[in-house]
Structures are given as C-alpha cells and as structure tokens.
Amino acid sequence: MAYQASYGTYRAPAKKRGLKRIIFGILGIIANLIGLIVMPVVAGIVVTVIALLSASPVSIGGPSGTVQTTSSSLYFVYVPTSETGSSSCTVEGASDMVWDPSQGSSPATIDGTEYTVVGSIQVTDDQEVAVTCDGASDVAVADIGFVGSLVGMAVGLIIPIGLGLLAVILLIWGIVARVRS
Questions:
Q1: Domain around 104
Q2: Rg of the chain's alpha carbons, rounded to an integer?
Q3: What predicted TM-score, i.e. pTM, was given to this entire model?
Q4: Are residues 69 and 103 in the same domain?
Q5: Cα–Cα dist 68/74, whole Å
Q6: Number of H helices, E strands in the chain
Q7: Which DSSP helix (H) or strand (E) runs through 109?
Q8: Maximum Cα–Cα distance for the chain, whole Å?
C-alpha cells in the first residue's frame, strides 16, 4: 500500500457559480430603472394617439346643443374647419368641468365636411353640458375617454416593475450561488 498524503494530491479549484446571474440581474435592474421612467410616458402617448385617431365626432345638430357626459372623460369640440377663425365657443355645465379653448391639429370628416378641434371639455362627474359656438354653422363632439390613457400608463408601470422584481430575484439568486460555491 502506497503512502498518499492528503496535502499532496491535486484537486481542481471549486467552480464559482452565479456570476452570469449577478451580471444579468444588475443589467436588468438598470434597464428597468430606465423603463420606469420611459414606459409610462410612451404607453400614455401611444394610447392617447390611438384614442385621438379613433375618435369619431358626432354633430349636435347646430351651433348649440347639449351633450351628456360621463365621469372622468375627455371630450373634444369640433367646428367646420372653414369656420374655426370666426367661431367662439362657450361651455356651461353643472359642476366640476374644465373647458380648454385651444385649437387642435387632428381634423375629422363628418358627412364630407372637414371639422377641426376648437377646445376640450374634461368632466369629473356625470352631467349634461351645454355647448354654444357663435359663428359656427355646426358643432360636433367626440368622446375621447380618459380611462384608456390611465390604463395605458398603468400598464407602462406594471411591466417594468414586474421585470424589475425578476431582475432582483435573479441578482439575489446569483449572489447566493456565488457565496455558496
């Protein structure tokens, strides 16, 4: 029987594990920190653009009329494009209503006539709103729906938070594997 000392035999060094998980976890956290800033803005813009492009204004039947509004919605008021310079619109509601008289750049066509946005109405509760546009032959209103924009922004937050949690779990898993090896 040959003598063999325990200190004299060669043993390969223990393989360090978890380095890839640590690297990908750190990169994932950095990417998700950027995503938390960028994603809600991008999602909000995309949903708003889709809502604007899909908005279909409906004529209220003349230069004045009433519109039944629902809570937490945004409505655009349109007049024929040829009359935007000579028209002046006023809006009256029961309560909690914001009228923003600013012209928009998203024209719409109703019965062959091009209409342009002359303002927006934002309400916080269900109410009937009276719209009067002096100098316009017709007024149209489109419900844009504010809830869709909020959903888009919420999704823009939920996705980076979920992926960020996965990156943190990956980082912790990598650190534990590294320490144990």
A1: 56-143
A2: 30
A3: 0.60
A4: yes
A5: 12
A6: 2, 9
A7: strand 108-110
A8: 114
